[in-house]
Amino acid sequence: MTTSSPHVLVTGGAGYLGSVLTRRLLDRGFAVTVLDNFMYRQNSLMDCCAEESFRIVRGDCRDERILTDLLQDADIIIPLAALVGAPLCDRDRVGAYTVNFEAVQLLCKLSSPQQRIIFPVTNSGYGIGQPGVPCTEDSPLRPISLYGETKVKAERVVLDRGNAITLRLATVFGVSPRMRMDLLVNDFVWRAVHDRAVVVFEGHCKRNYIHIQDVVRTFLHAIDHFEQMNNRPYNVGLEDANLSKLELCREIQRLLPQFVSFEAQIGEDPDKRDYIVSNQRLLASGFTPEWSLERGIRELIKCYTIVKAGQYANV
């Protein structure tokens, strides 16, 4: 990797996560190239256009010609481009497989062994865990959605390639220029602010959570500690935020007391993952999260005085 102004290639860099990460990379002095197809017609990178070290390419992450060209200058590769979430992947199953898996496989094939990859996946690959037993990076991967399956397969390809770090993200929450209101915490806070009520399906199901700013900080941490962390997966979540959906509602109610939640007696959530997660491997590498669930909820309450319903989602 070059010693001055390392060049980072970010696919999907105009998305929910990429819009925050790209800005932070530029602020840290990296040269950044973003490849994105702008499928949501977002303008989330407008503030980056004034930067001389920023390049933007409109295109498809599955296009070998484009990737071959962009990889020539890259020291670090961050493949964010993906169809994210079970509902979106079920709607476009071919796209889910070709974008979430085959495009990553192509990147691994085209890149040189010296180029470093930091690849986000999802801890939903754990599927349904054992009650009370935290999933570690050594726990079996048993995804129960097409989204989880494609990300698990892609992670295997990346780790087999080597010179790579994978980040198994908890359910992300928080504000981004390319906002997503369909993520669980973001959705529930929206309902608390505007509807003051939510009907919860599969209220007992647990999952882990992490703020988007801490996810971005994890990428920067991985860049700074790459040799120490190389060739391993890392769970990325809050140790004190392994919560069921009903427990999440109670956390929101602490800040918005008029919010009420009801558990549906009939019907079901198509996303049935249920697990708790240990993030000790990442913490042992020296990373410490800065954003609590409460701080993120306060941020979202302010955000929802600005945005309108239906503007921001993947489906």
From TrEMBL:
Domain of life: Bacteria
InterPro entries named among the record's database cross-references: Epimerase_deHydtase, Lipid_A_modif_metabolic_enz, NAD(P)-bd_dom_sf
UniProt enzyme class: isomerase
Keyword Isomerase found: yes
Keywords: Isomerase
EC numbers: 5.1.3.2
GO molecular function: UDP-glucose 4-epimerase activity
The NAD-dependent epimerase/dehydratase domain, residue ranges: 8-237
PANTHER family on file: BIFUNCTIONAL POLYMYXIN RESISTANCE PROTEIN ARNA (PTHR43245), NAD(P)-BINDING DOMAIN-CONTAINING PROTEIN (PTHR43245:SF23)
Name the UniProt record assigns to this protein: UDP-glucose 4-epimerase
